[in-house]
Input
Amino acid sequence: MLDRSVLDHSNIVRSKYFTAISKDYEHFIIPYIALSFSLTLTCCNYSQKILRKGSALSLLHSMVNASD
Output
């Protein structure tokens, strides 16, 4: 069996490690998720605008071709 002081030291090191991970999570991962979500919404918005313009252009093109 391991000595009690070794187990206590192991628990202290483990708790410090998880505290550091949780601080990284708060400061880096959460803003990264928010930024990627924001970029996704922005890209979807622009792609919808492009599709609308594309469909309007195709409609205009078909109207011009129909008049020929």
Summary: The longest helix spans residues 4-67.
